[in-house]
Amino acid sequence: MAVQESGVGGAIPLSGAIDPTGPQTLPAGRARGVVRKVHIWVLPFLLLLYVVSVLDRVNIGFAALTMNKDLAIGSEQFGLLSGIFFIGYLLFGVPSNIILHKLGARLWVSVILITWGIVATCTGLAHSAEQLYVLRFLLGIAEAGLFPGMILYLSYWFPRRQRAQAVALFMVALPLASVLGAPVSGLILDHVRWFGIGGWRWLLILEGFPPVVLGGLALIALPNRPENAWFLNAEEKQWLASELAREEQATLAESGRVSALGTLWSGRVWYLCAIYFAMMIGLNAMNFWLPMVLRNLSSSYSNTAVGGLVMIPHACGLVAMILISRHSDRVQERRYHAAIPALIGGAALLFIAKTANPAAAIALLSLMGIGIEGFFGPFWSLPGEYLTGIGAASGIALINSVGNLGGFAGPYLLGVVARQNGSAQSGFVFVGVAMLAGGLLLLGLMRVRGNDAAGRSRNLPKRKVTAEGSPDRPSAN
């Protein structure tokens, strides 16, 4: 079996190299059992990592309930503070994913976790907006590789027809982090004053510590590839490796091999970047501004009460995420399953600025949660239909990194609107328009053709690939 050298855990088998003498088919029941084992042994740990990641990224929104007054931070400054994270995120996302693909997930994810945990903890020690700017920027660099790395990692384990649900179960961390973390964050703000240190500082410090611990666990709990999985027997490893290899070969035959540099010239990749940019405006406006929008509905709400209310839109999004992705896998359709939730959520936000009733506002924000979080599973199944190998590593990271500039633009522009109009609710209309644009772009996705000739590696002509992973002669294309 051909191997790629790795700096950790020995050699990592190439995904396209399979043993032609080994079993490449299994009865349907046993095949489902293999995928079920991967669900049980891989997804829970990834989910935990992403829950911690989301908490460290968005807890600044809860900290702002008291931090902004302590450090004299205005709405526009807070918008910049929220968004500057994504500038660092943009710079290191693609290099980090290429390193993960080359080095292996186990070692590189551990490095990511420990580094960002240290930076996140230091954020609670800042004494000025300027110090927070620097630390949030560094946090973006440290954390940049985790999400795209996990999306890439899932493609090493799940065949395409089960991938939307796998991505959605991983991304359940988005709403789950708020469902679990919001009330905890509110309680810390209201009740933790140890050693005379403010609650917002303890919030950032305490939620920055878990990544350091998880970084050590990742070295034990995270196998690089199915071939390294202790929970699969030899026959199951062989079947899963061959199944994934066949899918990779089919993608190569249809779309050609895309190099890491070649993704920069892929029209389809940049089209997906634009869609993700629009939707990340919505996600990060929700993450960073939702506590303050709910507080504005009634000044009588305590921080603990706000934390409880924040759970509601995220809980609705959690249910939608699982149901939509499951149906997407069942019918093997991605575009409409991602577009329709985006359009529903965007339309709901057009009414939020004129809504003074708390119950109506929470209902509209819940539709926003359904739209944003229901979008992710089907959407992140799309890149794997066009990209494999190093092209997938760089393409997924590029979509995530460029798209996450919406995480900078959205919170910052919403802060500007909030300062001018005196209410963050008015800024959510802008967010709704962005989500509508993302949904419409998804509906137009089929107009972006798959030739992407400029994005293919100049030195690798499009080839047909045999079942054994050996290239046949170049095709007529």
Q: How many H/I helices?
A: 19
Rg estimate, integer Å? 22 Å
Kindly report the oligomeric state of this protein.
Answer: single chain
Domain module count: 1
Describe the global form.
globular
The proportion of strand residues reads: under 5%
The CATH architecture comes to: Up-down Bundle
- Give, in order, the helices and strands: EEHHHHHHHHHHHHHHHHHHHEE
Structure commentary:
This protein is an all-alpha fold and 477 residues long. The chain has one domain: Up-down Bundle (Growth Hormone, Chain: A). It is built from 19 helices and 4 strands. Strands 1-2 form a two-stranded antiparallel ribbon. A two-stranded antiparallel ribbon has the order 3-4. Helix 7 packs antiparallel against helix 17. The protein is globular and about 60 Å long. 55% of the residues are buried. Mean pLDDT is 77; it is low at 1-23 and 447-477.
Short description:
With 477 residues, the chain is mainly α. The chain has helices spanning 28-41, 43-70, 75-83, 85-103, 105-123, 129-143, 146-155, 163-171, 173-191, 199-206, 210-221, 234-255, 267-297, 303-331, 335-349, 358-379, 389-403, 405-421, 424-443; strands at 3-4, 12-13, 463-465, 471-474.
Keywords for this entry:
mainly alpha, Growth Hormone, Chain: A, two-stranded antiparallel sheet, disordered N terminus
